[in-house]
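Researcher: Let's do a round of design. I'm pasting the structure tokens now; please hold your answer until I've finished.
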């Protein structure tokens, strides 16, 4: 019997079977590709959690970062929950900030507004890390519940002491003022006789790290939004820019293949480039762990 002779009832049965194959909650008897897993995960998050306005105030946004930061703060837990439902509860669906932070010590560094993450067996190497947020947000709850757990995981896996910088934000502050605080943080690492100092940032934080490339022995640029610097109003940009890639020290560039926010950098010079099946903010827990494991491996090698 060919498809043309199927009864309406049989056609409905085939359509339902195809729907179940394409979209199921929980375990599935077939192996999904990483792209399919990401699609399933993001579809669930998109359907259940309203995306707030991430527009910065200089582009017409409300200027209140609280709703956006609250969304980011909850994203890791929501991702684990969604992954257990959509991809299978029998798999390891832990995010890096839950899986790899036992034993890490935290200490406030008030002189630069940062937090120091010290692993049990430090190597003597340091890193200065910078959160995302489009230059105007990413502090507060987002910093404590989303970014810093990943920083702690990278410190724990690499043996690197990481000073995470809660740097001043636009539009109240300029890039020049942010860069001044970065230089102060590097000074703290040098004061403690750091064997090497790596700058690590995510999104706009990666642009901040790259802007200060001359201060570091190495760079890690995670899903970098380098073009965001030139897109800032002149009064915030304050004459600052990202130096050419051929002037960077040894660099790891992490690229999200489905990045809907940051354009892929046109020039990364001789940097090591690693690609991930990920959106800018959302990936499966497996990919999230791999991303941090790669950061840690790079930090160990510097």
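Researcher: That's everything. Go ahead.
Model: Designed sequence:
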């Amino acid at each position: 019997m060919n498809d043309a002779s199927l009864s309406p009832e049989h056609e409905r049965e085939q359509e339902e079977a195809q729907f179940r194959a394409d979209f199921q909650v929980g375990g599935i008897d077939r192996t999904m590709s990483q792209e399919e897993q990401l699609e399933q995960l993001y579809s669930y998050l998109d359907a259940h959690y309203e995306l707030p306005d991430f527009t910065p105030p200089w582009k017409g946004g409300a200027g209140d970062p609280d709703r956006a930061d609250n969304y980011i703060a909850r994203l890791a837990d929501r991702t684990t929950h969604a992954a257990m439902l959509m991809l299978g509860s029998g798999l390891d669906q832990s995010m890096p900030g839950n899986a790899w932070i036992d034993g890490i010590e935290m200490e406030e560094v008030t002189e630069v507004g940062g937090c120091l993450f010290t692993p049990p067996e430090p190597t003597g190497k340091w890193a200065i890390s910078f959160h995302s947020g489009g230059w105007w947000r990413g502090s507060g709850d987002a910093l404590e519940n989303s970014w810093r757990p990943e920083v702690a995981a990278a410190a724990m896996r690499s043996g690197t002491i990481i000073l995470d910088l809660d740097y001043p934000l636009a539009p109240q502050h300029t890039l020049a003022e942010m860069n001044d605080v970065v230089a102060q943080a590097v000074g703290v690492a040098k004061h403690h006789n750091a064997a090497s100092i790596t700058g690590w940032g995510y999104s706009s934080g990666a642009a901040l790290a790259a802007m200060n490339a001359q201060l570091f022995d190495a760079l890690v640029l995670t899903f970098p939004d380098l073009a965001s610097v030139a897109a800032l109003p002149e009064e915030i940009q304050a004459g600052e820019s990202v130096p050419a890639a051929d002037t960077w020290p040894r660099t790891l560039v992490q690229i999200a293949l489905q990045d809907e926010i940051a354009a892929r950098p046109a020039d990364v010079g001789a940097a090591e480039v690693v690609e991930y099946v990920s959106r800018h903010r959302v990936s499966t827990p497996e990919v999230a762990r791999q991303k941090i494991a790669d950061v840690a491996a790079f930090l160990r090698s510097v």
